[in-house]
Amino acid sequence: MKATKSFKGAVSAVALSAALALQGAVAIQLVAVTAAEAAVVSRIEVRGNQRVGAETIRSYVGIQPGKSFSNDDIDEAVKKLFATGLFSDVRVSQAGSTLVVEVSELSVVNQVLFQGNKKLKDAALAAQVQLKPRGAFSTATMEADADMIRQAYSRIGRDDATVTPQVIDLGNNRVNVVYQINEGDRTKIAAINFVGNTAYRDGRLADVISTKRSTVLSLLTRDDIYDEDRLRADEEALRRFYYNRGYADFQVLSAVGELNETSNEYTVTITVEEGERYTFGDISVESTIPGVESESFNSLLETHSGNVYSAKNVEDTIIAITERLAGMGYAFAQVTPRGDRNFENRTISVVYTIDQGARTYVERIEIRGNAKTRDYVIRREFDIAEGDAFNQVLIQRAKRRLEKLDYFQVVEISTVPGSEPDQVVLVVDLMEKSTGEFAIGGGYTTGGSTDGPTVEGSIVERNFLGRGQFIRLSAGGGKNARDYSISFTEPYFLGRRIAAGFDVYRQTRTYDDYKSELNGATVRFGLPITENLSTQLAYNYTEEEYEYNDECVDAFGAFDPTKCDLSPVIQDAIENQSPWSKSSLSATATYNNIDDMKNPRQGLYATFTTEFAGLGGDANFFQVAGRANYYHTLNEEMDLIGLIRLGAGHIEPIGDDGLRVFDLFQSNDRMIRGFEYGGIGPVDAATGDHLGGTTYFNVSAEAQFPVPGIPQSFGLKGAVFADAATLYGNDISVPGVTIGSRDMEWRASVGASVIWASPFGPLRIDYAVPVAKEDTDDEQNFNFSISNKF
Q: Which end of the chain has fewer CB within 10 Å, C or N?
């Protein structure tokens, strides 16, 4: 294994350092001072020094002329001189009444140079080495630095990189240190094999771990890098996966990577023992604290008899009971689950015991490994601080929060004894990972303003300057559309768990007969209510402007109906309601317990938004809209996922002015597939233009499954679906216009999809066929999208 070779290299470096230190010690010669009794000298002479002043050396020696000294004093002087790190050799001798201190100074590093490196820049390598310009040179340190450089290359997937250190003597005791680097080829992962699994296929387990097999896309994803720490984290991910699905006896027997040095590829083998699958048996709560009734906690239980055993449900129950106890004033109370397995009927009965725990306090929180992320960004995820009562539940919650930030590859929290018996020190060990992303993608859409090829690029930093702030710059569009936006979020506004941010955006669209330009900004504040439920309050301001396309106007700039066939309703809005400003206040509640936002298999994502427009500006309306996506695993072995999607919305005018046609809801592929954008609902009977509606409902059912014959690690899935939707209600009145399809009429479609979890984001191609429609509807069978539809 390559990891073993790296460890041996580190041991060799330590052994080399020890040998050099021993040589220096052996080189110390104490001449003339051999008598056990004290001696006296009249002066101290320093020899061999070039950079370090003689007085400085005498100050370290500490022996004063005219005062007696012993061999122990000389030993201490030599130790002090070596401890400065400035000398390779120290000799102390006595010549008559003179104490002679002869030193050999270490060379001074003039420059540290890196040659042959392309994948890792000089600045990144300089941060790995200990030798620095104007510092003392050490051969042992140079060799250790070379090993650190090799490890840095191993972390980016280049295990066969070689580093050859060289020393160039510049004279005058000055040297340049050159690390000659051969970066080698990328070390790939040829295969990831699972042994001992029967309940879940290899492909399903491969989806759980972060280490991935090398594919043609690995150059973009960079998830095929073999790393021992990542593999340990993958073991924990597998344990959580099985523990939350009933397999309480699950074990990872071994997880190893073997390097084929000929092909420079790893084969990772993970051997597991699944054990039996359990359900919950009897569930109860016991209390040993006087005055604390166990029955009062039954409503907090997340574990229920007959349900499949889940370690997460046990943890959630412990957290809920502990928080209730803390609110009752029992800060040191401990909740301990006791499981009783029944091997015959494969059940686990759980008793939650409430005890008065030991009075232990947190002395301090020590954070290690955060080179970029600032300490306060980590500390604020703890609901516990120095001096507070020690609470293991709150510590585990902080660990989950830190992992959820997605700033770190590894988060480990341990405890060590404090300075007093009743105090402990929390040690937080972290391994950071890249939080910046650059993404570019493209596609092809039909229907609506984005008809034709599209492209989108974005730059995202999730941990801006190590402060935990989120910033995103994006630009995109196609033949008839342009989008630009800037977003910024401070997750802890004024030191509280309140997310504050803003969005600035610009959108331009070109339709068949007219075009639009929208400029807007949003200021928002978000507040978490529970771990899964959050709210957001926002102020929104937009300015819109509409005008006819050049081919639709005459020589005087007026709309020419002989050139373009456009509904008078839209003409009225363009001529009388442009430019148009909207000043609104919106509130959103979001519930999210999805297991994996990139590849969801279980959970609910639901959001409900209300918007009031009328705080100045031209718009006056009240709008509500909501949607929900519910995922459920239908068959674990086949990795068959079911999805139910619901949506609804309504807009109501305030006052007598009514609504603009551009304020109304338009249908889209999120509402129903198989129809064009804006292809259903109220329509101008004369021109056929769809005008939008005040109310909509939609429902969709879908089944997702792996594509047979294609490795699951490639991220390709298939789906079949059925959609139904209605869009109705339109009270806009323009002389001479008859609006049809105002009533609630349901449309329906069925179809199939190909879904690819690509490096650019989730890509999806849908093919849908309408099975219930109106004569005025516009169909569109194919649809392409580049995002998850939450």
A: N
